[in-house]
Automatic annotation (TrEMBL):
Residues 32-64 are annotated as: Disordered. It comes from the Eukaryota. One of its GO terms (biological process) is ubiquinone biosynthetic process. This is Ubiquinone biosynthesis protein. Belongs to the COQ9 family. Membrane-associated protein that warps the membrane surface to access and bind aromatic isoprenes with high specificity, including ubiquinone (CoQ) isoprene intermediates and presents them directly to Coq7, therefore facilitating the Coq7-mediated hydroxylase step. Participates in the biosynthesis of coenzyme Q, also named ubiquinone, an essential lipid-soluble electron transporter for aerobic cellular respiration.
Length: 289
């Protein structure tokens, strides 16, 4: 339930922040209104022939500072454990590259820009991994291919694994993301994550199921993420057990619209309505499968 409350707060604050999301919404409408797989034309990847992840969407491809910004972001991640997701971390990252500490002025929004870079970069890494898995699975006989549930479960675990190096400071990142001025990006990032996972899992739904699958997967991801922050077990074994239990408790796979609506009532009709509204406004559901 804590995760549902957290997700509700993000969606609710996103409604208040929509006026500041025009640029990001335009990007989504431009990038998602095609049937091209996200590894080639998603908002977090560039047209680079699949040769690695492209810079995240907030970086202008025509900006001469693009490469430098990304270098500072990546260098700054080394200092997150010491300074958190802060302007100080960005300054330390710049200094480690031999740049003056004032180079952090390239990031006027401060630590949240580093959070968004990290989140989007992780999404891009996962997308690349999933695309590779899909290709590998094509070579398998149907009887040996992983089920949709297994594919999605492994994708969620792989994405959560990316948080481990920063787990001590991730609660700070979540708190920063939940601020009204940042919640629009947080929603976009989470929405892109669950959409990519379902895309590579082979989802082709175009009806009410499109929303239900992504909302429920977002709930699974957020609840497991929150559990993970408190998990002291070796190699986060209790987190993966919890993740399995979350998949056991939701109706993702092969369920009809009526059953999905029934499950949604357990999540909360208020959250459901807000999710539909925000997704429609931002154009996240415009990708044609």
């Amino acid at each position: 339930m804590a995760a549902l409350v957290s997700t509700t707060l993000i969606f609710r604050s996103s409604l208040r922040a929509l006026s500041g999301c025009q640029v990001n919404r335009s990007l989504l409408l431009q990038k998602l209104s095609t049937d091209t797989p996200p590894s080639q034309n998603g908002p977090f990847r560039g047209e680079n022939g699949g040769k690695g992840a492209a810079p995240p969407p907030h970086v202008n491809p025509d900006d001469a500072d693009e490469e430098l910004r990304e270098k500072i972001f990546r260098a700054s991640l080394m200092f997150v454990s010491k300074h958190g997701w802060t302007q100080k971390t960005l300054s330390s990252g710049a200094e480690s590259l031999g740049l003056p500490s004032v180079a952090h002025g390239m990031f006027p929004k401060g630590g949240v820009e580093l959070i968004n870079f990290f989140y989007q970069d992780c999404n891009a890494q996962l997308s690349k991994q999933l695309a590779q898995k899909v290709e590998e699975n094509r070579e398998l006989e149907d009887s040996t291919k992983p089920s949709t549930r297994t594919f999605i479960r492994e994708a969620v675990q792989a994405r959560l694994h990316m948080l481990i190096p920063y787990i001590e400071k991730w609660p700070q990142a979540m708190a920063i993301q939940a601020l009204p001025q940042n919640s629009c990006h947080a929603l976009n990032n989470l929405g892109q994550l669950v959409d990519d996972i379902w895309y590579y899992a082979g989802d082709k739904s175009t009806d009410f199921n499109w929303y239900s699958k992504r909302l429920l997967l977002a709930g699974v991801y957020k609840s497991t993420e929150i559990f993970m922050l408190q998990d002291k077990s070796e190699d986060f074994q209790n987190t993966w057990i919890f993740l399995d239990s979350r998949f056991d408790n939701v109706e993702f796979f092969g369920k009809n619209v009526k059953k999905c609506k029934k499950t949604t009532k357990a999540v909360g009709e208020n959250l459901w309505g807000m999710f539909l509204m925000v997704q429609n406004i931002l154009g996240v559901n415009s990708r044609v499968r």
